[in-house]
Description:
Elements: E1 21-26, H1 41-48, E2 55-56, E3 61-62, E4 68-73, H2 81-97, E5 101-106, H3 112-122, E6 127-131, H4 151-159, E7 164-169, H5 174-183, E8 185-188, H6 198-204, E9 209-215, H7 237-247, E10 251-258, H8 269-285
Parallel strand pairs: 1-4, 1-5, 5-10, 6-7, 6-9, 7-8, 9-10
Antiparallel strand pairs: 2-3
Helix pairs in contact: 1-8, 2-3, 3-4, 7-8
Amino acid sequence: MKERNIHTFIGCEDEYEESKIVVFGAPFDSTTSFRPGTRFASATMRNESFGIETYSPYQDKDLEDINVFDAGDLELSFGNSESALKDIEDATAEILEDGKIPFMIGGEHSVTLGSVRAAAEKYPDLHIIQFDAHTDLRDDYLGQYYSHASVIRRCWDIVGDDKIFQFGIRSGERAEWEFAKEHLHTTKFNFGNNFDELDKVVEKLKGKPVYFTLDLDVLDPSEFPGTGTPEAGGVTFVELHKAIEKISKLNIVGLDMNELSPIYDHSGQSTALACKLLREILLFVYK
């Protein structure tokens, strides 16, 4: 974990000790309900990242001017969710213990649970902001308790009521929407303003520890087709970028980006977008 990875994301070649943010991959997709392939996301992003620049013209900042460590990919058991989640939890806990911010690249969305477990252990008042197309609030999916379709329900088991804030949601079974109304803050997708209420949430969460989880299928498939569960009617890159800029002002103690499945977009468009977002988020979050 603390030895520098030979194959790194562009601009993330610093040493562990001097870095404030630690990027690591969680290549796991064993509970994917539709199309697998997210296990290839982190490795593909590292390779394709050299097609972008380290400099962000949006922020006038450069990855070369900050300290980020790329720890490489965790070796996870593909067929055992509980084992994979434990390994992710341990890796995240180690990074947090060293006073750094863990930034995990999935993988399917279920990997978020491992990092949230570690973050909630260190920060008992943890709040979660989720950008996603799906509620992910099923109690189980086809008998699988730990699933990418139930990951936020499992996170709720940890943090409890009024601690999870969902944006961009446009898919979920009726029972999930009913559960969300009672226990979470869910902003239903709005074609006029996809991030209604975000300003209020940011104001409310000032000073509190926040975990940010970004499921890339929040984006519209016309911009981001490379995902296992595309959902029409999503947000644009510009909308997403502006929303992330707002939440970056909060006390982000951990975060992840997941659900890129590069094999479903042979043009490379989706991977290029994910790489650019990763650069932008690193520059936003780094304080």
